[in-house]
Task: structure prediction
Amino acid sequence: MALKDIKSKIKATERTHKVTRAMEAVSAVKMRKTQSAALAGRPYARAALSILARLSGSAALANHPLVKEADALSKIALLIITSDKGLAGALNGGVIKAAADAIAAYPIENVTVYAYGKKGEEYFARRGYRIAHAYENKKDDIELSAMEELAAALSHEFEAGAFGEALAAYSNFKSTFEQLSSVRRFLPLSLSSVERLVADIVPVKGKWSELKAIEAPASYVIEPEESEMLSYVVSRLVSISLYHLLLESKASEHSARMVAMKNASDKSEEVARDLTRLFNKIRQAGITREVSEIVGGREALAT
Result:
């Protein structure tokens, strides 16, 4: 390999290193921001869990369309939350695999897919699944209103009997270096599912780090109307559940991308170092050869 080619590769590797370092720093900031949003919403999610616990003994709640268990599970809905962008290691692949395993027992025609993110949409569309709704997952600033449309669409179809169960496949943020691909049932809504949601939100030190178990009271009074209150609370709980799943997925995406870019940065440094060593070795060999030729020529002239 010529010295010019090696020098070009070194410069290209150094440019790549600068890009990956910048992407690593950006992803770290976004990860902390998204995880902070999830932590900030933990008290709200816990308050919602408390409300659901207090209503858990209500006959009206048990018969609510979004809470009542279906008689037969012949059809199922799948919400898959992935990213629109790559460069996040095996994050999207893990979520897609978990989702595919969860619906493997159902015929394709009995599965309705709601895709939040391009990667999941492309995977299931190529395999012939019906994509009921597809949403972009590009924005990093997530608001609860972003999930209300999706929650309303899913709730409407569930109440209409289009499917008997709704699952969500997403990446659960455990730590910077650990993201767990998970599948969770969110329809019909249950106390245990919301409780697991609250438990999965990593607590911070202080007031919310140690919380007592929520207990439902033996008796309660609901005003003004039980049906009116339940219609709002239950639908709101579905939106909150989906919102926190999206927050967890976002934090996992940025964390996985940060780790992937750090590995790429470390590798580019290693490649640049090896190329520099090779460049110096070839250049030194060339200098040694030229010196040997000069010395050999001078000795030839001397004789």
About this structure: Strands lie at 76-81, 111-116, 130-135, 166-175, 178-187.
